[in-house]
Design goal:
The complex is a heterodimer. Chain A is of the alpha/beta class. Chain A contains 14 helices and 17 strands. Chain A has four domains: 126 residues, Rossmann fold; 98 residues, PAS domain (Beta-Lactamase), CATH 3.30.450; 65 residues, Signal transduction histidine kinase, dimerisation/phosphotransfer (DHp) domain (Helix Hairpins, Orthogonal Bundle), CATH 1.10.287.130; 149 residues, Histidine kinase-like ATPase, C-terminal domain (Heat Shock Protein 90, 2-Layer Sandwich), CATH 3.30.565.10. A five-stranded parallel beta sheet of chain A has the order 2-1-3-4-5, with helices on both faces. The longest helix of chain A has 48 residues. Chain B is globular and about 35 Å long. Classes of the chains: A alpha/beta, B alpha/beta.
Chain lengths: 491, 141
C-alpha cells in the first residue's frame, strides 16, 4: 500500500512515540501533536489520512477535536485511543463519528490492525467522494454542453425542427418559428397538426417511414402572416448508435431573397433582350424592304428608311453604352475618382457635342453657370454622362424651335445643376416611375422618339453614388426641369 | 375574288409599320395604319377590311389581345381575320405561345407570328388569312 499520512494526537509522549515507531515501521508517514489544538492546526494545514486521538488531553479534548475534524473534512477518519476506564466514552466517540477505538494498553499488532482497517475505510471514503465529485463535474459539464448546444441551435439562421418517431415535435429553434410565421410551437404535439404546413409535415413523415439514411429536399412555399416566402426543406431520419430510428430532423433554409434576386435577374435579362432585339428587328425589317425591292425604287422612300436605320442603330449603341455604365455602377468597390471638376467646363463640353443634333431638331441651347470657378466633387466622366443623358432627353422630348437651358449655381454645400426643356412635359402619374430601368412614358408623341429607357436610371444611379439627388419638375405642355444636386468641392 | 386586299396594321413601332406598309403596298395591297388601340378600333369600324395585323404589346403588354377581343365582340368587325405579331418570344422570357384552338380562341386571333416577319412570310399570311371569316350563327357575346 502506498505511503499514508497519519497524525497522532496524544498528551502522553510514550504513546506518541510508540505509535510513530510502529506505524513508521509499517511504512507510513507519521506526525505527532501533544494536544487537540496543535493537532487541529496541523490537520487544517496539511490534511491526513488518519488521525489517532486520545480522548483525555489537557487542552482541547479528543471529542472537541473529532467534531472539528468532521467539520473540516467529512471523510476524515479518526481512531480514538483511550484507557479501559473510559470505554463508554470511546463507544460514544465512535457513535459521534470516530471509526474505531483502541484501548490502552495496546500491542503493536493491535495498533497496526486497527490502523490498517481505518486506512482502508479512509480509502473507500475518499474514493466515494472522488466519484461523487467526478459525477457532479460530469453533470455540470453535460448541462453546460447542452446549454451550449442549445445556444448554437438557437443561433443558427436556418430553421431546425426535430420530430420523434411518434411523429411529435421534439425540438425547434427561433429561426423555424420565424420562417413558419408562428410565435410558438407546442412540443410533443403531432407535427401533422402543429406546424400549419401540411407539405413540410408530410415530407418529415415520409422520411420517417422510408427509414433510409438518404436526405430529401423540397422547396416549400410558405405564407406567414401575409408574407410570401419560399424555404428549401431538407429532411433526414436520425438513428441511434444501434441503428434504431429515433426521428427526423428538418432544416429549413430561407430562399425568399435568393428567389427574388433570381426573378429580378430573369426579368432584367428578358427586358434587355427585348430592348436589344427591337432596334435590330426594325433595321432588319428595313433591309428586307430595301434589298427585296419593295420600295419600287423610290429613292426618297429609301433615304427615309436609311435615316431611321441610322437612328435605331445609334440608339442601340447608346443602349449598350448605358448598359455598360450600369454594369460599372453595379460593381461593388467600384473606384470612383472623386476630384474637383469644373462645372462650366463639363457643361460646355457636353453642350458642344449636342450642337449638331440640336440644330437638326430646331432646338436652341443655353447655359448659365454661376461663378466661373464653380467645382463639384465628382468623377469627371460620370458627371459628363449625367449631363449627356439629361441634355439628350431635353432635346429629344422638346418641341420645334424650343430651347434647352442648363443652369448651375452653388446651394449651400452642394451645386445645383438643372436642365430645362420647353417640351411636352411628363404626365404627373408617370413622374414617380422615371428612373426605373426601361421605363418610358408612352404617349402618341413619345412613340416616334427613339430612346433606351435607361438614360435616367443611369443618371439616378450616378447621382446617388455621389451622395447627391435627382429632382424632376414638369408641367404638361410646357416643359420639364431635371435637377441634380452634387457635393460642392472646396469653398 | 380580288387579290388586292385592304389591310389594317396596328402597331406602336413606327419602323415596323413603315416596313410592313412598303412590303404590302409593293404587292398591290391597300394598307391602313394605326399606332394605338383606340385609333386601331376606329379604323376597323370605318373601313371595309380583309385583314388586321395587330402588335401584341402597345400601351399595355396585352393591348393587342384586348383589341382583338373588342374586334371579335363587335358585329361590324367580328368577321375580319386577325393576326397578332409580337416582338417577344420564349427566348426573352415570354412564356405564351398559342398551339391549340383553345389558345387561339383565348387570344381571339387566327394566327400568332413572331417578329421579325420576313416579307415572304408576311405576304403568305395575307394569302392564307386574307379572306373574311365565315360568320357563325348568333350574335357574339
Amino acid at each position: 500500500m502506498s505511503k499514508r499520512r497519519i497524525l497522532v494526537v496524544d498528551d502522553e509522549n510514550g504513546i506518541r512515540e510508540g505509535c510513530r515507531r510502529v506505524l513508521t515501521a509499517e511504512g507510513h508517514d507519521v506526525e505527532v501533536a501533544e494536544d487537540g489544538r496543535p493537532g487541529l492546526d496541523m490537520y487544517r494545514s496539511d490534511g491526513y489520512d488518519l488521525v489517532l486521538v486520545d480522548l483525555h488531553m489537557p487542552g482541547m479534548s479528543g471529542m472537541e477535536l473529532l467534531n472539528a475534524l468532521r467539520e473540516r473534512d467529512r471523510e476524515a477518519v479518526a481512531v480514538v485511543i483511550t484507557a479501559y476506564a473510559s470505554l463508554d466514552t470511546a463507544v460514544e466517540a465512535t457513535k459521534r463519528g470516530a471509526y474505531d477505538y483502541l484501548a490502552k494498553p495496546f500491542t503493536p499488532d493491535e495498533l497496526a490492525a486497527v490502523v490498517s482497517r481505518a486506512l482502508e475505510h479512509r480509502r473507500l471514503l475518499v474514493e466515494g467522494r472522488d466519484l461523487r465529485e467526478q459525477r457532479q463535474r460530469d453533470l455540470l459539464a453535460l448541462a453546460g454542453e447542452q446549454s451550449r448546444l442549445r445556444t448554437v441551435i438557437d443561433c443558427v439562421s436556418d430553421g431546425l425542427l426535430v420530430m420523434n418517431r411518434e411523429g411529435q415535435l421534439a425540438l425547434f429553434n427561433p429561426a423555424a418559428l420565424r420562417l413558419l410565421g408562428v410565435p410558438e410551437l407546442p412540443l410533443q404535439a403531432p407535427v401533422s397538426e402543429c406546424l400549419g404546413c401540411p407539405e413540410l409535415a408530410e415530407l418529415m413523415e415520409r422520411a420517417l417511414v422510408s427509414k433510409t439514411t438518404g436526405r430529401a429536399s423540397q422547396e416549400i412555399p410558405l405564407n406567414s402572416g401575409g408574407q410570401e416566402s419560399v424555404v428549401l426543406a431538407t429532411v433526414a431520419p436520425v438513428a441511434d448508435e444501434a441503428g434504431e430510428w429515433l426521428g427526423v430532423v428538418a432544416v429549413l433554409r430561407d430562399l425568399t431573397a435568393a428567389k427574388e434576386i433570381q426573378r429580378l435577374k430573369a426579368s432584367f435579362v428578358s427586358m434587355v433582350s427585348h430592348e436589344l432585339r427591337a432596334p435590330l428587328a426594325a433595321v432588319r425589317g428595313y433591309l428586307d424592304v430595301i434589298l427585296g425591292g419593295f420600295t419600287s425604287g423610290d429613292p426618297e422612300k429609301e433615304r427615309k428608311m436609311q435615316e431611321r436605320m441610322r437612328l435605331r442603330t445609334d440608339a442601340l449603341l447608346a443602349l449598350v453604352d448605358d448598359l455598360l455604365t450600369m454594369s460599372r455602377l453595379e460593381q461593388v468597390n467600384q473606384s470612383h475618382t472623386l476630384e474637383p471638376v469644373s462645372v462650366e467646363d463639363a457643361v460646355s463640353d457636353v453642350l458642344h457635342l449636342f450642337e449638331a443634333e440640336a440644330e437638326m431638331n430646331g432646338v436652341s441651347l443655353h447655359a448659365k453657370v454661376g461663378p466661373e470657378s464653380l467645382t463639384v466633387m465628382a468623377d469627371g466622366e460620370e458627371l459628363r454622362r449625367v449631363l449627356t443623358n439629361l441634355i439628350s432627353n431635353a432635346i429629344k422630348y422638346n418641341r420645334e424651335s424650343g430651347s434647352v437651358t442648363v443652369d448651375a449655381e452653388p446651394v449651400g454645400a452642394t451645386v445645383r445643376i438643372s436642365v430645362t426643356d420647353t417640351g411636352m412635359g411628363i404626365p404627373a402619374e408617370c413622374v414617380p416611375k422615371l428612373g426605373q430601368e426601361f421605363y418610358r412614358v408612352k404617349t402618341a408623341r413619345t412613340r416616334h422618339i427613339v430612346g433606351t429607357g435607361l438614360g435616367l436610371s443611369v443618371v439616378k444611379r450616378i447621382v446617388e453614388a455621389h451622395h447627391g439627388r435627382l429632382e424632376v419638375a414638369s408641367q404638361q405642355g410646357e416643359g420639364s426641369t431635371f435637377t441634380v444636386f452634387l457635393p460642392r468641392s472646396g469653398n | 375574288m380580288s387579290t388586292r386586299k385592304t389591310i389594317l396594321i396596328v402597331d406602336d413601332d413606327v419602323d415596323w409599320l413603315s416596313a410592313a406598309q412598303a412590303i404590302l403596298e409593293a404587292a398591290g395591297h391597300r394598307v391602313l395604319i394605326a399606332e394605338d388601340e383606340t385609333s386601331g378600333m376606329a379604323a376597323a369600324r370605318s373601313e371595309h377590311l380583309d385583314l388586321i395585323v395587330l402588335d401584341l404589346m402597345m400601351e399595355e403588354t396585352d393591348s393587342g389581345v384586348r383589341l382583338a377581343h373588342r374586334l371579335r365582340a363587335s358585329p361590324e368587325t367580328q368577321h375580319i381575320p386577325i393576326i397578332i405579331v409580337t416582338g417577344v418570344r420564349a427566348a426573352t422570357g415570354f412564356e405564351f405561345s398559342p398551339e391549340t384552338a383553345a389558345d387561339y380562341a383565348w387570344i381571339a386571333a387566327d394566327a400568332w407570328v413572331e417578329k421579325p416577319v420576313r416579307p415572304g412570310e408576311l405576304l403568305a399570311l395575307v394569302v392564307q388569312f386574307g379572306e373574311q371569316r365565315p360568320v357563325q350563327g348568333g350574335e357574339p357575346q
